[in-house]
Amino acid sequence: LSPGAKMGFFTFIKVMMILFNLAIFLAGGTLLGVGIWVKVDGESFLDIFGSISSSVLQVVNVSILLIVIGAILLVIGFLGCYGAQKESKCLLMMFFSVVLIIFIAEVAAAVVALVFTGLAETLLTGLVTPLLKEKYGQDPSFTHIWNVTMTKVHCCGLNNYTDFTDSFWLEAHGTYPKQCFGVLPPLAHPHPCACLLQGCFPQILDEIRTNAVVAGGVAAGIGALEIAAMAVSMYLYCRLDEK
């Protein structure tokens, strides 16, 4: 290519890099704002988006997840957009490094999820069960999330009713959550342990397996975008040496 054509191509890639990362920056700001909203007023958020309450995200702290993802996207978007606009080799290399680290972490997480599924289930159980014992009935947002989930999915706790044994809720109310008794009220069960619903975890796993193809496609698309972003940032980085 002639020098003019090379410069034109460089300018085009630079503009695309700026626009792409500007979109990432705005998306990160949006997720960060939504995460703060969920953290401050989770109940109103769930009232609006109640149809997704049975998804797997209901077993984790959605607000923290959104805030973390939003903050990461803000950093990536800023580094890519400002680095391309200012033609800063330092910022472009930082952008490349951050995206590469995230890409490696995603690949490692996918490998762990495929190879060590049993271990992942154990870790999730070990994380969520203590939260149910400590926070259910004390944290309004956490309690509301689990109430909606157990009602819609028709389940009790993550594993089963024993998740609420020795819990704050059981000590405060003397019985298990009403969702654990299905269609019958708690007093209709003289021996609750024999009558409670199954845990939510098996049904969550079924939902994950059902949507595994879609999730895999989304993950592959994100990975392709990350590879493209790294390639573009490295192209701009190398071209700056030639200018």
From TrEMBL:
Q: Which domain of life is it from?
A: Eukaryota
Q: Transcription regulation as a keyword?
A: no
Q: Which CDD domains match?
A: uroplakin_I_like_LEL
| Residue ranges crossing the lipid bilayer per the database entry | 12-38, 58-79, 91-116, 212-237
The record, for Pfam families, names: Tetraspanin
| GO CC, alphabetical | lysosomal membrane; plasma membrane
- Which SUPFAM superfamilies does UniProt cross-reference here? Tetraspanin
Establish whether keyword Transmembrane helix is in the entry.
Answer: yes
| Keyword terms | Glycoprotein, Lysosome, Membrane, Transmembrane, Transmembrane helix
Query: What membrane topology is given?
Result: Multi-pass membrane protein
Q: Where in the cell is it found?
A: Lysosome membrane; Membrane
Q: Which InterPro entries does the UniProt entry name for this protein?
A: Tetraspanin/Peripherin (IPR018499), Tetraspanin_animals (IPR000301), Tetraspanin_CS (IPR018503), Tetraspanin_EC2_sf (IPR008952)
Main function:
Structural component of specialized membrane microdomains known as tetraspanin-enriched microdomains (TERMs), which act as platforms for receptor clustering and signaling. Participates thereby in diverse biological functions such as cell signal transduction, adhesion, migration and protein trafficking. Regulates neuronal differentiation in response to NGF by facilitating NGF-mediated activation of NTRK1/TRKA receptor tyrosine kinase and subsequent downstream signaling pathways. Plays a role in the inhibition of TNFalpha-induced apoptosis.
Q: Record's family?
A: Belongs to the tetraspanin (TM4SF) family.
Quaternary context: Interacts with SLC19A2. Interacts with NTRK1/TRKA.
The record's listing under PANTHER family reads: TETRASPANIN (PTHR19282), TETRASPANIN-1 (PTHR19282:SF216)
Q: What is this protein called?
A: Tetraspanin
Provenance organism: Origma solitaria
Gene it is expressed from? Tspan1
